[in-house]
Amino acid sequence: MKLLGTVKWSSMVVLNRSIPEPPTAVLLHGILGSRKNWGSFVRRLAQEFPTWQFVLVDLRCHGDSASIKTRGPHTVASTALDVLKLIAQLRITPRVLIGHSFGGKVVLSMVEQAAKPLPRPVRVWVLDATPGKVRAGQDGEDHPGKLISFLRKLPKEVSSKRDIVNALIQEGFSKDVAQWVVTNLRPTGAASSSSSSFSWVFDLEGISEMYESYEETNLWKVVENLPRGVHVNFLKAERSLHRWALEDLQRIHAAEESAADEGGGVEMHVLEDAGHWVHADNPDGLFRILSFSFKGVKA
Question: Of 153, 174, 157, nearest to 165 (Cα)?
């Protein structure tokens, strides 16, 4: 793990130092997540494609990056700029950009803001997110806005992870979501288990602002006017029905046809047997779909 600019990051990189600049993929998490969400999945990618470097980023206000004081506004665009600054300072030219949920809009914003610094060709993966209106579920477990509101009511320091899990379940969130949320708790104070306490690692106020931006940000113009050589892949989770309206699918399919004429690319994929948490629900299926982006690419 290293610190650079306004975000913290870690990488899994080929050990053969005779390769001066391995092809690089950058992976971004969603709201209330962290780069650790991608850990096991990326280890598998790194084993299968050992000539690649994978950079995992804690977005502003999340994970280890929450300790870095960043100036607002906390938006999709400002988050994308953070990552663009990071890859510029690292002097890497990513061939693949992968973003889940909020991170999906961030990678689209990266293309919008900095098409020129991005390599040609570059493949962009937007996992279970659309470029425009956010259609969150009505049930508590799949409604980030409701989850953020509930977390804001909790104390900043707690004595038991189990109590927080139980409180979330009682509020209507699933056990899986509750257990995922408490991964954002870190021990504070003395190491003694009898007197230990935990504090949240994220900046919830900043995250609340980021989620509002996620709902409001419209990036359809990027998808419908792609720079030459940029290929955007949308992945829809089969069980994430509420997030995708018929008009979204029709608009993406229309963009597929027009992008091909302009030298770019848009493609739609469906991940079977998966809800919104695609890398946890069906990692094998996701691996198969993403793999073709890493095949046949030389350093």
Answer: 174
